[in-house]
Amino acid sequence: MHDFISNNSGKVFIRSVIILFLILMAGFGGLLFYGSKSIHDLFENNEKLKVAIANLTREEQIGYAKVIGQETIEGKLYTTLKFVETARDNQLNKVLEREYLIEGDVVFFDALIVTFSNQDIMTGEKRALYLWRRVYGENMAPSNGYPIEMESQAPKRYADFLAQLSLPDQEMFWEAVWQMADDPDVLRKHGIKAVYGNAVYKKLRPGLIYVFKISANGRVYPETIPDI
C-alpha cells in the first residue's frame, strides 16, 4: 500500500509539473504573439502614428559642435569639444548639450537616418527622422565612440513627435526604430524605406563653429562659421 501511494504521488507530481510547464509555454508564446502583433499594429494600423509621420517637415539644421580647448598630453593632441543638438522648430533652443574629450583633432559625428516610404503617409516632401548616435576620433574604433543619443530612448528633439500616442506605444516605436536598422525585410513591411548611418568627419579648430545640416536627400554635412 505504501508503494502504491508513493508511486501515485510521484505520477501526480510529474503530471502537475508537465501541466504547469505547458501553461507557462502557452503564456510565453502568447506574449511573443502579442508583442509582434502590437508592433505590427503600431506601424501599420495606428492612424495617430501615420499623422505624426505625415506632419514631419524637412529639417535643415540639426546641431553644432565647437572646440572648447586643445592641449598636448604626453605627446598626444587632445580636443575637448561641445556638441549641441537644437530643437526642430527653433535653432536657438538647445535640447541636448554634451562635452567630449577626443584624442586628436579629426572627429567623426555619426547619425542614424530613418526614411519612410509608405504612400499613405508620404505625400509632399520626404519625411525622415535624424537621430544622433555617437562621436569618436580617428584613432578610435566607431564601436568605442561616445554616445550622443541613448539607444532605444526617445530623442529630446522629437519630444512632440508622438505626443498623441500612449507612453508604451512611444517606447515601442523608438525601440523598434533602433533595433530594426539591420533588418530590411522588417523595415519594408512596416513602411520604412531605410535606416542607415551617416558619419561625417571634420578637422576641428578653436574659434570655429561646425553647424550640421541635412540635405534634401538625407545627407548630413557640416558648415563652418566663425565663433562670434
Rounded to the nearest angstrom, the radius of gyration is 25 Å
Q: Which structural category fits the helices and strands? A: alpha+beta
* Topology pattern, helix = H, strand = E: HHEEEEEEHHEEE
User: What is the helical fraction, as a range of percent?
Assistant: 25-40%
Low-confidence stretches: 1-6, 17-37, 120-124
Largest sheet: 5 strands, antiparallel
Overall pLDDT score: 75
Which outline best applies? elongated
For the record, the count of structural domains works out to: 2
Q: Number of DSSP helices?
A: 4
Estimate the strand proportion: 35-45%
Q: Reading side by side through the largest sheet, how are the strands ordered?
A: 3-2-1-8-9
Per DSSP E runs of 2 or more residues, the count of β-strands stands at: 9
Distance between the termini: 96 Å
Task: Write the SSE topology.
Layout: H1 2-44, H2 47-54, E1 61-73, E2 76-86, E3 94-103, E4 106-116, E5 128-137, E6 146-147, H3 167-179, H4 184-189, E7 192-203, E8 208-214, E9 220-226
Antiparallel strand pairs: 1-2, 1-8, 2-3, 4-5, 4-7, 5-6, 8-9
Properties at a glance:
alpha+beta; 2 domains; 36% strand; 9 strands; 228 residues; 4 helices
Give a description of the structure.
It is a single chain. This protein has helices at 2-44, 47-54, 167-179, 184-189, and strands at 61-73, 76-86, 94-103, 106-116, 128-137, 146-147, 192-203, 208-214, 220-226. It has 228 residues and is an alpha+beta fold. The chain folds into 2 domains: 2-45; 53-226, no CATH class. The strands form 2 sheets. The protein has a 5-stranded antiparallel sheet, with no helix packed on it. A 4-stranded antiparallel sheet has the order 6-5-4-7.
